[in-house]
Amino acid sequence: MVNGAELLNAIKSISQEKQIPDDIIFEGIREGFQKAYEKFFDPEAIIDVNVDEVTGMINVTKRLTVVQKVEDEWLEIGLSQAKQKYSENCTIGDIINEPVKFNDEYSRLAIFQVGQIIKQKIREGEKNKVYDYFLPKLHEIQTGRVVDLTENSYLIDVDGTVVSLWNKKTINQEKINIGDRISFYVEDVSKENKHSQVSTSRVHPDFLAKLLEIEVPEIAEGIIEIKSVSREPGRRAKVAVYSHDENIDPIGACVGAGGSRIKSVTNELNGEKIDIVKWDENSEKFIMNALAPVRVINILVDEEEFFDEEGNLEDAHRECDVVVPNNQLSLAIGKSGMAARLVANLVKMKINILSYDNALEKGVEILWNGNITEEEMNDPEFINNVFKRRNNSERNYQNEKPLIHEENEEWDDFVEEPEIEVQAASLDDIQANLEAFDNLAKEEIVDEEDEEIDDYDQYYDK
């Protein structure tokens, strides 16, 4: 015989520990006894289970239809028997609820079924709890405490709910310890994902965008809009911004007084240098802003959109040819193509970069429609400034340890790898072998990572 009170007390203690509502527990008890009867007696029988929520007493009854002649004793009862056992008022078609007798075997099977169903209900309840908690926080930043480590992830407690942060979603496999408080971006929330209901990330471009929104009130208020973000997590990032108020400088607002705002964000991103770029609806101007401080001699943008019969955008071809001064080619490319890749991802366009000499060899018409004239390019002051940057970079290269970076395949989930074509007269095979960028850097004793856009480097100096 099942001791209903003891069973109920045990299940209630589990529900309190797991924070599962009592009605789910009672539903599990009813379902468990029903399934046990179906397995032990008859799968076609109609069973009702009533649980007294105060005493824990469990009553199981079987529905029987009153008939003149019994053909199925599990579903029917004869009229004469029904009148004898239950009531003289019974008539054909009435439903009789016959009590089910408990025996040891049925009791054991019922308890086992209840346990299995309760476990399932608890899992479902926990899933629903996680889903309901994090769904309103989708695409937002959350902060929690690291409570455990696994081989591939960190387990983070957020207000009593534990989520996983996979190693590949951390910044350059950063070192995180148990007890640390850490912020992350809620990338996706799912009810059914068996691996992780909540997809979290610290390398998603929108993680950077949301950090800026926290630090810059003008972004939170909608005065300044983030148009696009391009990241090489832990190394460098570019953010395109636009001000809806002509009296507010979007770059200055994001950087903050003395770089205070941008410094807070870069500290959270383990030293990731952030370049704020002014967005422009004119593609040529936007690209030149993104390439700064590289000057542009020639720029030609080819934009084509393809629509279906109903007028919906199906595909788009966006490509840009850029000619830069010879002595700024390596700056435009960046170490291992990083600078060019950041620009291409920011403007969402294929970028073809040519040096001035190479453009002449290719027979490219030089329109001088960029942001530098021929006189300025040949101006000794411009040339001296380029060499000055290289000399500073050479000293940094000799005095500082090189940055070690491991490629993170997960970035491809957020940013499509742009197509970058770079042509240089001194390196005929630069298109076929991206490693030639590194060779170019070594020949000039230049660390492009330090040589790259350094307008905001002062804000990262310790």
From TrEMBL:
UniProt keyword terms in alphabetical order: Cytoplasm, Elongation factor, Protein biosynthesis, RNA-binding, Transcription, Transcription antitermination, Transcription regulation, Transcription termination
Residue span(s) of domain Transcription factor NusA first KH: 202-279
Record's keyword annotation contains Cytoplasm: yes
Entry's Gene Ontology cellular component terms: cytosol
Function: Participates in both transcription termination and antitermination.
UniProt subunit comment: Monomer. Binds directly to the core enzyme of the DNA-dependent RNA polymerase and to nascent RNA.
Descriptive protein name: Transcription termination/antitermination protein NusA
Organism from which the protein derives: Spiroplasma alleghenense
Gene that this polypeptide is encoded by: nusA
